[in-house]
């Protein structure tokens, strides 16, 4: 059993924190049952696994980090919109997808600042 499955049964250390992050691997539906894909994915959390952790932790902001898309047989990766939908089916709080050099400013409100393209 992976660590992520153990964590689902416990009260998260980040309970009611301002923010928490979780890495996910997003599998295309047509490759989810392939043994090689399942083995690799077993070492990571799915979007719905992360959503269950977020739902238990109840952070003000949940951030998906290191979103690793596993492409389908036509080599198309799952869209970020599909990943966010999988999360929102379980967790109804605020969710952002992390980006390199993204800043999160915590105060009365939580502000996410994304790097501006050059």
What is the general shape?
globular
Q: Which stretches of 5+ consecutive residues score pLDDT under 50?
A: 1-7
User: What is the tally of helical segments?
Assistant: 4
Overall mean pLDDT stands at 83
How are the strands ordered across the major sheet? 1-2-3
Structural class: alpha/beta
Write down the Rg. Answer: 15 Å
- SSE ordering: HEHHEHEEE
Task: Please outline the major beta sheet.
Answer: 3 strands, parallel
| CATH fold descriptor | Metallo-beta-lactamase, Chain A
CATH class: Alpha Beta
What is the annotated CATH architecture? 4-Layer Sandwich
Helicity, as a percent range: 25-40%
In CATH terms, the superfamily is Ribonuclease Z/Hydroxyacylglutathione hydrolase-like
Strand content: 25-35%
Count of extended strands: 5
* Cα end-to-end separation: 44 Å
Blueprint of the fold:
Elements: H1 3-8, E1 19-27, H2 35-41, H3 47-57, E2 61-70, H4 80-88, E3 95-97, E4 103-106, E5 110-113
Parallel strand pairs: 1-2, 2-3
Antiparallel strand pairs: 4-5
Helix pairs in contact: 3-4
